[in-house]
Amino acid sequence: MRNAADFDILIVGGGLVGAALALALRDSGLRLALVERGAPQPLPPGDDWDARIYAITPANVRALQRLGAWAHLDAARLAPVYTMQVWGDDGGQIAFSADRLGVPALAAIAESRRVLDGLWIRLRESDAVHCVTGLDCDALTWEAERACLRLTDGAELTARLVVGADGRDSWVRDQAGIDIHPHSYQQWGIVANFATEKPHGQTARQWFTPDGVLAYLPLPGNRISIVWSVEETKAQALMALPPDALCADVAAAGRHAVGALRLITPPAAFPLRRLNIGSLVRPRLALVGDAAHNVHPLAGQGVNLGFQDAWRLAETLHRRGVYRDCGDYHLLRRYDRARQEDILAMQIVTEGLQRLFNNRDPLLGWARNLGLSAANRLTGVKHLLARRALGTG
Length: 393
Description:
The strands form 4 sheets. Strands 5, 6, 13, 14, 15, 16, 17, 18 and 21 form a 9-stranded mixed β-sheet that branches. A 6-stranded mixed β-sheet has the order 8-2-1-12-20-19. By secondary structure, it is of the alpha+beta class. The protein has helices at 16-24, 58-66, 98-101, 112-125, 171-175, 232-239, 243-253, 302-318, 329-357, 362-377, 379-390, and strands at residues 9-12, 32-36, 53-56, 79-81, 83-87, 93-97, 107-111, 129-133, 137-142, 147-151, 156-159, 161-164, 183-196, 203-209, 212-219, 223-231, 261-263, 268-276, 281-282, 285-287, 293-294. 34% of the residues lie in helices and 28% in strands. The protein is globular, with a radius of gyration of 21 Å. Helix 1 (16-24) runs parallel beside helix 4 (112-125) and helix 8 (302-318) runs antiparallel to helix 9. The chain folds into 2 domains: 4-40 and 115-181 and 273-354, FAD/NAD(P)-binding domain (3-Layer(bba) Sandwich); 53-110 and 185-272, D-Amino Acid Oxidase, Chain A, domain 2, CATH 3.30.9.10. The model is unreliable at 359-384 (pLDDT under 50).
């Protein structure tokens, strides 16, 4: 292993956000190391569909294209979203169209592991990032001038800056002694993929109901991916259903918009929570992605927020100016201030919608559905919401 003292930046976590950050920094002139225990293996062209599906905003697609990662994705596994339709629980609705917004598509639907594969292909092609794989992290300590990471084989890596990109249960965050106070939504998210009887028309659909939120995302061909956020007891009941019964429940909850469904990937479920740690940085430490924040999946913006973290941190480090030390706290605060507004805004929106619709008060039911329909008629409001979702405003 090369001398650990050579590294300026040590990124712990080589998932989507960590790998994207490493690539975004490859031309920075900084010495980079990326630590990931389980580096992804190259994927065959036509294997099963990934249950983890993301609606990636146009802004993030363009960034991934600039990194050269998007070119490695199989176009036959991608699906554009041209329209989006959202319904309340009592007649309220709002719709968005790429044509009316003057953009080629509202989002690109992609499988998590396909995007990750594209990022790692580019990492392996680059000699600017030293990738350490197959080892666990053992200990992480900070000193005035550096941080030191010890691996399970006894090797040590030191760097001026450690970036925690290791997910919602971040080990790096724990090692830094950062207290977290996650808020449980008392809901679980269920994800699965289905073949559909009818074409989806490249339309993303979402239904808000008093007991949860259901989203249909278009996949290539007559296929969809779903995210269904429901209370834990209902999630357990849904997960216990045989495939045919689950298909019938998902089709009925989606008002049979794409006809009958056939399950093509086993369903998976995970608890939902909100996490805001207040500051994304400390001296010689920056957090990105789910290590820094969690939001409700109803807006589909979790991975998009993470990518935006990566781009902004990379930009801050590229433009560090007089700050020769990339772990300087005052420099890192630029990144923190730049990201807090977007993160807070997304958490407020998702929290507000979740509380508004997960409520059986009839007066609130009338108000929320009226609000959806009113926003649908106000072109300026719709465009503002759409620009925020697209990452363009």
